[in-house]
User: Which sequence fits this backbone?
């Protein structure tokens, strides 16, 4: 068991105790506390994309920022044109990004590596949605601008994705151990993690399950990878230096996101808080996933 799985387990233990005390956690409370942790830890894991990219590629700062911000605005336009297809695109991007960050150093052919990343991520997201499909439908139907997303939660199609991608993931783990691409410790660690993810996604509401994974198993792990890389580049690099590096864009992103959500809550922006939250996360994820692909490669 690695550090991030241990942190995940601690989070599971705390939330289980909360459910024992309160029986049920109100949706608004789930959104508030989940948003807090996603903003505090989730956003900073992409706050040094520019630093990582400049260390990996020779490119002018102007060109980088034009491309980075351009992708954000292009995705915003896509959201305005089609909410449904934008969500599908976002799920595909997230699936690949989650798979890549979980297995960045696995030594297989690039084409098979990319397929595995994508299917591992799809298995993760389909598991989260499969176990919480009724909750997702009720949340979706609660707001006028999210009703269209109900099409995504088709149980028959989701069931096919859930069973096929999870079977592919488990079989791949056995193939990797047989081909000596991973050692026995890593094999059992990944199998245990998959079991733990299934258990928590089944037990907890959608928002809590996603937040647990995103914060403990994804964001913290990625920030650790970033810190190790920067420390190798600069031997005297310390945790405090890393925090200082994360701070400017983290604070800017958190403040801007909070402002948009407040405007939405007060009906100044014509998008509901849930839809706007998905939009904000997705438009940040697109350029971040591209930068991290360059970083991990």
Assistant:
């Amino acid at each position: 068991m690695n550090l991030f799985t241990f942190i995940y387990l601690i989070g599971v233990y705390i939330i289980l105790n909360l459910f024992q005390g309160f029986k049920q956690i109100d949706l608004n409370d789930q959104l508030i506390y989940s948003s807090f942790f996603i903003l505090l830890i989730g956003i900073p894991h992409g706050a040094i994309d520019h630093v990582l990219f400049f260390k990996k590629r020779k490119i002018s700062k102007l060109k980088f920022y034009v491309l980075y911000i351009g992708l954000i605005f292009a995705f915003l336009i896509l959201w305005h044109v089609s909410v449904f297809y934008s969500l599908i695109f976002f799920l595909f991007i997230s699936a690949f990004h989650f798979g890549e960050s979980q297995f960045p150093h696995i030594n297989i052919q690039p084409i098979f590596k990319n397929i595995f990343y994508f299917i591992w991520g799809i298995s993760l997201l389909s598991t989260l949605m499969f176990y919480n499909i009724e909750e997702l439908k009720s949340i979706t139907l609660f707001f006028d601008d999210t009703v269209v997303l109900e099409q995504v939660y088709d149980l028959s199609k989701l069931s096919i994705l859930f069973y096929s991608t999870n079977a592919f993931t488990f079989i791949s783990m056995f193939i990797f151990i047989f081909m000596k691409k991973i050692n026995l410790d890593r094999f059992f660690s990944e199998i245990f993690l998959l079991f733990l993810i299934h258990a928590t996604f089944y037990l907890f509401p959608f928002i809590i399950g996603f937040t647990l994974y995103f914060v403990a198993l994804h964001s913290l792990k990625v920030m650790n990878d970033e810190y190790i890389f920067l420390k190798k580049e600069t031997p005297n690099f310390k945790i405090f230096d890393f925090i200082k590096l994360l701070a400017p864009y983290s604070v800017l992103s958190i403040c801007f996101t909070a402002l948009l959500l407040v405007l939405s809550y007060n009906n100044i922006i014509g998008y509901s808080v849930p839809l706007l939250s998905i939009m904000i996360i997705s438009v940040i994820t697109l350029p971040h996933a591209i930068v991290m692909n360059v970083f991990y490669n």
In short: The chain has a mean pLDDT of 89. The chain has one domain: 3-296.
